[in-house]
## 1
Amino acid sequence: MHRRQKLPQSGGSQMSHRCTATATEPHGAIRPHSVRCEVCVSGSLTIVGLGPARPEHLTQEAVQALQAAVADPHSWRVYGLAHARALAEAIAPGLQIRSLDYLYGLTGVDRPLAYADLAEMLTRRAFSDGHHVLYLVAGSPLFYNDAVLAIRRRAAAQEQAIRLIHGMAFLDLVLDRVYWTGHSGLALWSAWNVAFDGVALDVGAPTLLVQLGEFGSSGDALNEDRSPEMLGKLRDRLRRQYPADHPVLVLYSSGPPEYRSEGRRIELSALADQPVPVYSNLWVPSIGGPDLEATLAAPSVRRMVDPLSEVLS
């Protein structure tokens, strides 16, 4: 682990120090106080968006961040939930990732409090303890991620800068299975907002309700434990605005290793008949809208092609 030294203070004089770090950077050199080694001053916090699920969805920037942590494990502390860990380990074998699955199993602790605790821990590790921290998240860090929001707000309150590595959001894969015309807009809500907060929808526009299994009891993206409760409450709430036979589309992933975009079309009255994974979504077509928007689209074809083999064939 990197060892920090207390530097002598001087009113504008060019004091020098020798950094004792042994990382790959040339930290051992004598440097003037004004350009002292950044690693000696503080750590850093980087939030890495890994995309929805598959390795080909990662950006080059995200891959480089993972590879840097593998190359210098003593300088980096990497954290992630189960689904994020699996993807990162496939891209960067040997990456040491600390599990955060405990967040989903804390008895009597609601999710906002757990996220606040996570934000406190990660910012402390980076800005007080001086570690370089990578926090791995699925999808985009800025899209329906309350934990990232808590981290950003806490870092801002401490006047500390963090690095965001953006990732492909899940929305692209969800829209792969629907025919959204865009003619009447699109509403986007957390399923929790409708089921438990009583948010009313605009029945004249299609709506995407995300994370049907949110507040499940583990970090596994395919966990279905809490979805029946959510689905039952969501069905009852939607029945106040939509007829029982209104078509809805349940959209989800098949999980590893292929992570296919799956979907099924059902009547609203049957919404709670079958549990769904954590990151399932519900497409609610508008009342009186085009029939096309109530149709389940066929999945796009995934074909991994080696360009060299194409040329040689």
Note: The chain has two domains: 42-165, 171-294.
## 2
Amino acid sequence: MTLRKKIKTGHPLIGPWCTIPTPSLIGVASSAGMNFVILDMEHGCHSYETIDLMLRYAEASGCYTIVRVAQNDESTILKALDLGVNGIIIPHMESKEDVEKAIQFSKYIPIGNRGYSPYTRAGGYDLNLNHCEKQNEEIATIIILEGIKGIQNIDSMLSIPNLEKAVDAIYVGAYDLSQALGVPGEIKNTKVVEAFDLIRKKVSDKGIQVAGYVAKNKEDIKWMLERGIKLVTILPDCSIFKNAYLKYKNDFDSILSEVAL
């Protein structure tokens, strides 16, 4: 089953944000059973060449790949899609016009106007008359609401005709939402949670999945699933590694204080 179909049908999925540009780490994540990895080109220092290698590692182990591009830009989105990813995350959605641009750049006709070349990894390096239809059908498109404007303009974004055919999930930035509500950083404040639930209902009523928040532990995962978030994102790889090393270092320091050497 494709990633897009799993997202569309509300299949629970879990995976990390990946900012470290090392292909072997994708193998580590997939060996741990992660369903997907998000290769972050906005906050990570990935090149397209590195992304290409990371995709191969993921595919070899049956892990879905999603690329978060750095900006809502035609060339940026096209290059990522032509590499053959399973899904794309497009940030900086602040208005209806931003979403319309993202659709135009990420979908082939008749939905959008993505630049066409079959001679890519996504196209199988050869002319295939079913390429456009197949890409529209199989590749997941996720957009991120950004800033106070993005939160405030959700209704106008959802008014786009047939939005559910072009966008599979909307990621709500919890920290942006908290700031918009006057409680910056308090992402589990009652006001924030209630607003998120309202946005989730509006998005779900359009046949689109909602995502948001980043799970730091088991309790967060449970909380997210109870909120109806089926696309569960966890901490970035850099944070996971730091926390693991930090635990060893703290244990080491604690034992040193107890053991006579």
Note: The mean pLDDT is 93.
## 3
Amino acid sequence: MTMFRSARRPRSQWRSRHTLLALVSGLSAASTVLLTAPSARAAGPSRDECIAAADDGQKLRDDGKLSAARDKFVVCATKTCPGIIAKSCAGWRDDADRDMPSITFRVLDEQGKELIDAKVAIDTATEQPISAKAVPLDPGAHVAHVRRADGKTTDENFLLRPGEKNRMIEIHFMPPPAPVTPKPVPTPATTTVASDGFKVPLLGWVGLGVFVAGGVTTTVFAVMAKGDESDLRSRGCAPSCPSSDKDSINTKLLVANVGMGVGIAGLGLAVVTTVLANTGNKSATTGSAGTMQSTKTVQSGGVSALHVDASPSTLWLSGSF
């Protein structure tokens, strides 16, 4: 009878096999780490890229371009960048987020009704539908180009300051201006006043008064001069009478002549104004201040055209001869 015995391995062989398996596993893990380490390093920016991003971000921030500066600070704030650079960039990124303004738009039609189907393009950006979400935007001057669903457009200029958050920009579509109609210039109303018979105007009465006064003056001083002359002749001193007596007579004669001239002028004024007041067509024009002005035109003799403008306070004569 044949006996089969199981072959048992010595303990030393089992230990050798376990040691080999552990060594293989360790080498495999080490190779995995060595292979994945370059990939991990390649996922982040290099040291030079971190420094360049930090420098560019600061320049953009100083120029007021906070959006582009923030993108640079995000790059240099990664953990793969040197510690001092990453820490500084993280702080600058937070500052950019704090100073970055944001806006929303509200579009109203001509009646003040809000339009929710309008579209807006900021500066040179692509047109986007109106949204209630705030849009971050760099500080400074901007222009919003708004287009309604019916095709009407309008522009709105606005200025953003650092730190303004959720600022509402209202854009109104204004109605077209109403046409301006020029106001008619009022013309003076002209009415024809019928003649009310013969009358003597005020200046006529003044002229008559001057004529009477001049006639009385002439008569009185002429009579006085004649009496003085007769007195000298009766004394028999002519023609060698004293000069004082002769000067007195000459003075009286001069006054008499002046009075005659004044009287004749007054009579002429009375005649002319009376004739003009009762001859020709009279037209009355009411001016803007309610003053009545009368105008007459007379053609006679050597006067081809004589115009007189009379009002309660003035008399103006003009004509061509």
Note: DSSP finds six helices and 13 strands in the chain.
## 4
Amino acid sequence: MVFRFLAFSFVMLTLTVRVPAQERQTVCFFGDSITEGWIDGERRPAEAYPSLVDSMLRSADLDVRLVVAARGGETTEDALSRFENDVRNEHPHVVVFAFGSNDSYVWGKSPAPRVSLARFRYNCRVMFEALSRSKIRVVVLPPPPVLESRFYRYTDSLLYVPYGGAARLRDRYAETLADLASDFPCANILDLATLLLAGDTALGFDGLHPSAIGHRIIARAVSIAVRTALEQPCSEEVALEGIRMYPLPYNRQVYSVSSISFPVIRAGTHVLRIFDTTGRLVRTFEYAVNTTGAFSVLWNGSDENGTNVAPGAYILTVSAPQGSTRPFPIIVL
């Protein structure tokens, strides 16, 4: 495994660096309670790594608008549901992606991780693919390491025995993120285990959330990664072979959303339409796309009224400034 180094409320904070408006780039911090700034049981956003990164970038006189979109207690299932509004609509140049701790948390009447490893991988892939196809760089923060001697004071250690312990389970989610990030040239992952386990002062009383010291350690690494990402924009070449859909067939009993991508040859308004086999229009998505390459849309299998479409065959088309794509058949299960 090669690492490319470069829980419970809501906050959305925008911080602006004093720079010429026409040159401003946007960095979006997308995460859970750690990104939100929960330190030793209190929400302290001023001491959290996004605020510290903001200060570091200001001191470097960088032209950046920072958006922090964080919700404590969230898994990647929750993140996927707000990805379009809280991330894509901000038109970021770089996204700092920080999820996994809540996904791997074991609970329930039949104890299991809140989000299975396979589902976690799928959720992250959908979001990474959408960002990559929009040529947005991603700095990935895996879940912090677990200090079991503290973590088990508040959680039944027996719940984690089938998974080799809480620390090993966390590592599996981090390894999944690292493996997934390697598939996307525009994504880089930080090695939090090495950073935060250098000393036990980097983790808080619960053995999971970083302490104020831990946030400072994370901030230094993230600021370097963000600066590098801003200086080396994503130049991934995207093949313009037409409409693509993942997964296909789209089984709504297994996957909450599908990702539909299409080529953008010329900036302007692009309209994705979904028809049934009788030619009836089922759903329309309209976007003003400002960059060339490719663009992705998330679809949950519903029609214009929010009702799930019937299982069967459907046809996708995209109307764009340069013309229309060929009809693309899909199957919904």
Note: The chain has eight helices and 18 strands.
